[in-house]
Write a structure and sequence with these properties.
Rossmann fold, Alpha-Beta Plaits, 2 domains, eight-stranded mixed β-sheet, 9 helices, binds magnesium ion
Length: 261
Amino acid sequence: MPLTIAEYWHRGYPLALMLDYDGTLTPIVADPTQAFLPPAGLELLRQVCRHPQIHVAIVSGRSLPQLLHFCRELTAEALILCGLHGGEIYQLPEHRFLRQPEREQLLGQLQPIRDMVLEELNRCNWFDAGVRVEDKTYSIAVHYRHVSPESKPLVIELLQGLFRNHSALCAPFKLQAGKEVLEILPRTFDKGDCVAFLWDFWQVVQGCYIGDDLTDEAAFAVVNQRGGLSIAVGKTPGTTAAQVICPEVADVYRELVALGS
Ligand SMILES: [Mg+2]
C-alpha cells in the first residue's frame, strides 16, 4: 500500500486532491475565527492549484462564506470550495455554484429547531457552562469544547433527547458528531457524497482525501471504494477507515511539497 500521495499517483493521469480544512490544513485553534492558513501553506496550495494535472478541493464543515474568507488569497486559482460538508459546492475562479442548498425550504425547516435548541440550552444554563452555538445558516453547530469534561455527555444527551422527542420536526436533519461539536445538519449534507460528486465532476480515476475528523470518515469510505488514497491526520490506528495515518498538519504540507516536484 502506498504511504504517500506521490507514491500512489500515476503521473500522466489527473489526480483529485480533496482536503479538509481545520485540523488538516490548519492546526485546531482555541478561537475558530483565527484558523488562518500558514503563509507557506498558502503558497503550497497555490502551487498545487496551478498544477495542470491536479484538481484541488477543500471539503469542510465550515460555511462557504467562512471558507471564502480563509481562502481569499486563493480566489484567482482553480479551486473548488465545499462548505457545510458538501451541502454547498463552489467553483473558483469562476465564482459559480456547482451545488446549492434549497434555501427557502431548509431555512423554514431549520427555524423552529433553532428556536427550540436555543431555548432549551438557555433554560438549562448551558451558555454559562461554556456551550457556544454557531449559526451556519443551513445548520447549527453546538460546540462544547469549553464545557467541563463531566458535563459534556449531558450536552450530547440534551440534543439527542430533543431529536428523539421531536422526530417529525427534526426528520430533514441529522445530529452529526464532530470534534467537541454536535451539528444539526441537513440529512443530505455529507462529505462522502461530496467526494463522489467531485470525483464524477472531474471524471478522475485517481484521488486522495485527507482529513482529521469523525465527519471525514464518510469521505474515506467513498475514496477507499473508488480505489483512492485516504489519509487521516492525527488519528489512532483502529479508529479510522483511512488507509494511512499521518501525525500532524505539517505532514500534510510535506505531501503537497512532494507533489510539486
Ligand atoms: Mg477537520
